[in-house]
Amino acid sequence: MALSGEHMFGYRRPVPRAPAPTILHADLDAFYASVEQLLDPGLRRRPIAVGGGVVLAASYEARAFGVSAGMSGGRARRLCPGLTIVPGHFEEYQRLGDRVIDVLRSFTPLVERVSIDEAFLDVAGALHLFGSPGDIATAVRRRVHGEIGLAISVGAARTKHLAKVASQVAKPDGVIVVPVGEEAAFLEHLPVGLMWGVGPATRARLAGAGIHSIGELAAAPGPHLERLLGRAAGGKLAALAGDVDPRRIEVGGRARSVGAQAALGRRFPTPELVRTTFGYLADRVAGRMRAAGCGGRTVTVRIRFADFRSVTRSASVRHAVSSTLTLAEMCCALAGGAMADHPGDGQITLLAVSVANLVPDATAQLELPLGLDGGHRPGSAHRSARWSVDRSVDAVRARFGHGAVGYATVALSDDGRVPDAFRRLAERRLPDS
DNA sequence: TCTGGGGTCCTAGGACCC
DNA sequence: TCTGGGGTCCTAGGACCC
Description:
Blueprint: H1 5-8, E1 23-28, H2 31-39, E2 48-51, E3 55-58, H3 60-63, H4 73-79, E4 84-86, H5 90-105, E5 111-115, E6 118-122, H6 127-130, H7 133-148, E7 152-157, H8 160-170, E8 175-177, H9 183-187, H10 200-208, H11 214-219, H12 222-229, H13 233-240, E9 257-267, H14 271-292, E10 294-305, E11 310-321, H15 324-341, E12 348-360, H16 380-400, H17 420-426
Parallel strand pairs: 2-4, 7-8
Antiparallel strand pairs: 1-6, 1-7, 2-3, 5-6, 9-12, 10-11, 10-12
The structure holds a DNA duplex (18 and 18 nucleotides).
């Protein structure tokens, strides 16, 4: 190791480094649609959507017609008669998204992946190698474009929140650096909806108070804001304004809950429908937990009714659950109670289950039975029978693929359903055991 | 024109404990 | 008997994110 003069004198001179906007937010543009245009040159510069019954993503050309994610395919076609709808190459999205993240990691190990197509980076330690944050942002964009063929927008600022706002403003295919000290000027005339955490409901509330821009929001008195946005709002504003952001880059984050849901169209919740649907959902969720060697202590079901209201019911148990059958039974019991509390026209449109309080523990597979139905507690023979069934199913799947065995999904209408590959894209990694 | 799927976090009230 | 405060966990709902 070479000794510098500083080390020889036994102290390290403090480095008076000016604060730099070293947090980057990199966000691929119209990711799914761009991948399709990359794979099939015939789709380039044309309005396309990925999906089927429902639009999962739209190219910028399609967005110009008002097509957006979440919209039904029929409506999208009416808005944009020339629209091409493609089913989607979900495995390619995962593969290309991973390659982009690899490019980011070549600049710094401090990469926090937020989703399939976006990530935060802290490049404070990379400046001496690659230049200024702006240089790095530009290099990222050039490499992702050159090596993978996708457009990516990058924002650089002093905090995660502000970097994210910057990348959104930079879209499509751009870069924005917000110099330290110029945060307020950058934000002043931007709409409040660009703030992280300000969605339709909050935006409407703020508009009612005459607040439309972030500048107007910043100028509003604190107590007034707290009434409008809740107590957490102050911290958000401070982070946005470029003050110290408590949220650091988190590498390798793990999910705190696991869930699955199924849209049903409008259906009457017959015991058969409820049982088969929760069988399918519990199978997905419990299978993921067992694969990760964890279980969960809190089970929540959600039911959405035809009028779009929804109710949730949850229950916590002492011993974590990871058996498909046990989870399915809990779901049915909770859902039964929820529906009894909510008489309406009776039709439902969605069932969902989520498991939280995850316990990374292989013995979670030996969870105790629940007894939601009044203390019925089968003995250990039942328990081990369930464990054996799960083990067998997991083993068959490991050898022959997920579709080889398991719950039929006949209850779910085929046309509205999205492919399992799409579901997998959105899944966060569970805690390792 | 009613809307796919997987997540996170906040709030508020209540139970319970010390 | 009534008074007080703090902490933790649970539940339900809501808003928001990609």
